[in-house]
Write a structure and sequence with these properties.
- InterPro entries: DUF445.
- This is DUF445 domain-containing protein.
- The protein is mainly alpha-helical.
- The protein contains 19 helices and two strands.
- The longest helix has 40 residues.
- It is rod-shaped, with a radius of gyration of 47 Å.
């Protein structure tokens, strides 16, 4: 019964780290070893004394006691050998099939991996276990509670803030700008714009814009009459008299004001009709005229490529980010209130809609079965490879520290059971005339 030198607390072996708790367990193992060994020595002393008494001429009880003690020693030694053989070679002798854990560690790891793969990672087992759990209904019932929905909403808001904090604004702006630019370049806008304009003209929705422009133009002309007349006079030839320039400027201003006023006040003004026809023709050209569509595409490309437009696209992320952060931090924001309401609604549906439950559980089961069947080899190899990477001696010591105390009871029980069996056999032998 050799004693191996215990590793110091905190010693780290491959795959293991010995702690103070492990060391305490090893002290418990040593105490139980001493108890089991002390019981063996006790029955040995009893055997010696009973045998001495029998040989000294004492009849009756010494034979029974000696038989019980002898069988107890045999049981104790046999169980000591069995327990010791798990972790090391008894007495250091190269006896076959001993030191099972150190020598068979890799095979045990492979067997454990195969056992787990066959009995825990099979599609039927996973599917049956998930179906028995009723995950979707439980999750739905949990989410339907307002307090739980508040908790999930708060966690989602925290995660969202964390994600936005980690992201670099420059990187996101570059990605957003590139994505918008690429999308704008890839999509031809003329046909869509033409259909929209055609619909607007057909519905007369543009007339409000024309009314607004005419009203604003009239008001501007009223407020800036001098500027208009000065502009007309400034364009007159230098040889014309000034009073003629003033009369011409005044006449042009009055006619322009009359024209704008009539357009403002007369829905059926010919200029309005001409504008309607122009917009309708332009809408048709946007959809069918090759030259118009090409010119619109060139204009679009030029606009998108301008630095000012790129700056606006890039700065959009900053505005969106600030808006999202503000909404995520405010418990009463529309974003969080809608998220909370959606979670509660989802929870109620998951808890009460049997068809939705069955569909969602089917998705979960299919996903889980796919994972365990596709990656079963990788999962089981994780077990076998991890066990194979452990140091054999340290593995044996670690396992012994955790289960060795219970194993010493086998030795104690073997001593007691052996003694009782020996006593019974000796009694039956004498009872039948042995």
């Amino acid at each position: 019964m050799n004693q191996t030198k215990d590793p110091a607390p905190g010693f780290s072996a491959a795959g293991f780290a010995y702690t103070a708790a492990d060391e305490e367990k090893r002290r418990g193992v040593r105490r139980m070893k001493l108890t089991a060994t002390g019981l063996l020595l006790l029955v040995a002393v009893v055997y010696v004394l009973a045998t001495w008494a029998e040989r000294s001429g004492v009849t009756g009880w010494p034979g029974y006691v000696a038989a019980a003690a002898e069988a107890g020693m045999v049981g104790a030694l046999a169980d000591w050998f069995a327990v010791t053989a798990l972790f090391k070679r008894p007495l250091g002798l190269p006896i076959p099939h001993t030191a099972i854990i150190p020598t068979k560690k890799d095979q045990l790891g492979a067997s454990l991996g195969s056992f787990v793969g066959e009995n825990f990672l099979s599609g039927d087992v996973v599917r049956g276990r998930l179906r028995a759990l009723g995950i979707v209904g439980r999750v739905g019932g949990w989410l339907a509670e307002p307090a739980h929905a508040d908790r999930v909403t708060a966690e989602l808001a925290t995660a969202l803030r964390g994600a936005l904090t980690v992201l670099r604004d420059a990187d996101v702006q570059a990605v957003v700008g590139e994505a918008i630019t690429r999308r704008a370049e890839a999509v031809e806008i003329a046909p869509g714009a033409g259909k929209t304009l055609e619909k607007i003209v057909a519905d007369g929705a543009h007339r409000r814009a024309v009314d607004l422009v005419c009203a604003r133009a009239h008001d501007w002309l009223v407020l800036h009459a001098d500027s208009v007349m000065d502009a007309v006079q400034g364009g007159a030839p230098g040889w014309t008299p000034r009073f003629v320039d003033r009369k011409v400027g005044d006449r042009v201003y009055k006619e322009l004001l009359r024209f704008v006023t009539e357009m403002r006040d007369m829905p059926g003004h010919p200029a309005r009709g001409a504008l309607d026809r122009f917009l309708a023709d332009f809408a048709a050209d946007l959809q069918g005229d090759t030259d118009t569509r090409a010119r619109v595409e060139r204009l679009k490309s030029e606009l998108v490529a301008r630095p000012e437009v790129q700056d606006i696209i890039a700065s959009a992320w900053a505005s969106v980010r600030a808006m999202i952060l503000s909404a995520a931090e405010d418990e009463r924001s529309e974003l969080r209130l809608r998220a909370r309401a959606s979670l509660i609604s989802l929870g109620n549906r998951l808890a009460g809609d049997s068809r939705l439950q069955a569909k969602a559980e089917g998705w979960i089961e299919d996903a889980a079965v796919y994972v365990v069947t596709t990656y079963r080899t990788e999962i089981t190899s994780l077990i076998s490879d991890t066990v194979a990477s452990w140091d054999a001696d340290q593995t044996s010591r670690k396992i012994e520290a955790h289960i060795g105390r219970d194993l010493q009871f086998i030795r104690i029980n073997g001593t007691v059971v052996g003694a009782l069996a020996g006593l019974l056999i000796h009694t039956l032998t004498h009872a039948f005339g042995g």
